[in-house]
């Protein structure tokens, strides 16, 4: 793994109407034919919306008592496989998911809703979609593309800003992703990054209700404190520091963990342009994402 020669940065291309890179499309047939089990839990997000945070919460809730060694010996990407991931010389996310020994299996995807293997719906799996306000999501994605050799070049901030609005990102347009999932909201549970920042304990309670767990007060406290930003940032098994494809000197994976960091990047003119465009693309008023709290 450490000796793995880093592949060149991938290029974006159109895949069934969504801009993608080959790392997430090459195993398409196998991924589409993935056999879900009724107790599987799928964590679905647009990249940088809080995937790792919710993954760590779920893993701690389910296995923190019964197999705590998992949490200290296995990195998050082994505990919660990334279903569509297909990087040369690494086991595919699909094979990892097939071989997961846990019940339930926790599985991560960044697919837009129309790409999710149909077995998850047929088996009535519990699905959790995490969304984050577009402005912070964009800023977080920018830093991620700067530091991650597995992503296309980020370019400068101004061009990234335009590309994000145009939907030329890995896993496509944020707007299409969030709108597409929102249309199916009756079939899964939604979580919002901003709500988790506001009151992590409250959101963990809601999550527990959805998945049918009732941890003791002590267990819950352990999870809540274990997933605080600084604790996850310092946790080698949650912070991705073991992946050579990411260059933490450029930017750490656990970067800031804040709501409203966009204000440090958007110019006044960009903010106006963004808001006008957002209004056109996000017509469903039942979906309200908070970019300040
Ligand atoms: P920032 O880049 O804004 O800091 P994902 O896991 O979907 O890739 O999302 C990564 C983003 O979630 C990063 O945002 C990261 O810092 C943030 N994050 C991860 N764990 C967090 C936590 N425990 N509390 C707050 N933010 C967290």
Automatic annotation (TrEMBL):
Pfam families: Sulfotransfer_1
The entry's keywords: Transferase
InterPro entries: P-loop_NTPase, Sulfotransferase_dom
Gene3D superfamilies from the UniProt entry: P-loop containing nucleotide triphosphate hydrolases
This protein's record includes keyword Transferase: yes
Superkingdom of the organism of origin: Eukaryota
Keyword Transferase: yes
TM regions (residue ranges): none
Residue span(s) of domain Sulfotransferase: 38-284
EC number: 2.8.2.-
Family membership: Belongs to the sulfotransferase 1 family.
Annotated PANTHER family: SULFOTRANSFERASE SULT
The protein's name in its UniProt record: Sulfotransferase
């Amino acid at each position: 793994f450490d000796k793995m020669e880093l592949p060149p940065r991938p290029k974006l291309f159109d895949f069934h109407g969504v801009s993608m890179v080959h790392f997430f499309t090459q195993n398409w047939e196998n991924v589409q034919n993935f056999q879900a089990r009724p107790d599987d839990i799928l964590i679905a997000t647009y990249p940088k919306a809080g995937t790792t945070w919710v993954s760590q919460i779920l893993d701690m809730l389910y296995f923190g008592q019964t197999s705590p060694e998992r949490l200290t010996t296995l990195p998050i990407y082994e505990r919660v496989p990334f279903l569509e991931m297909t990087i040369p010389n690494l086991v595919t996310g699909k094979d990892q998911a097939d071989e997961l020994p846990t019940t339930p299996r926790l599985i991560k995807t960044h697919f837009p809703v129309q790409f999710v293997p149909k077995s998850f719906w047929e088996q009535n799996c519990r699905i959790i979609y995490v969304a984050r306000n577009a402005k912070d999501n964009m800023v977080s994605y920018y830093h991620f593309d700067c530091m991650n050799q597995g992503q296309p070049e980020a370019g400068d901030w101004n061009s990234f800003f335009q590309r994000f609005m145009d939907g030329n990102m890995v896993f496509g347009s944020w707007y299409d992703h969030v709108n597409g999932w929102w249309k199916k909201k009756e079939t899964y549970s939604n979580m919002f990054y901003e709500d988790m920042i506001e009151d992590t304990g409250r959101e963990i309670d809601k999550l527990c209700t959805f998945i049918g767990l009732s941890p003791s007060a002590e267990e819950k406290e352990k999870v809540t404190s274990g997933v605080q930003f600084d604790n996850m940032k310092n946790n080698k098994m949650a912070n991705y520091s073991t992946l050579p494809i990411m260059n933490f000197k450029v930017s750490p994976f656990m970067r800031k963990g804040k709501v409203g960091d966009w204000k440090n990047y958007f110019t006044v003119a960009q903010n106006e342009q963004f808001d006008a465009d957002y209004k056109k693309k996000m017509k469903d008023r039942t979906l309200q994402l908070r970019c300040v709290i």
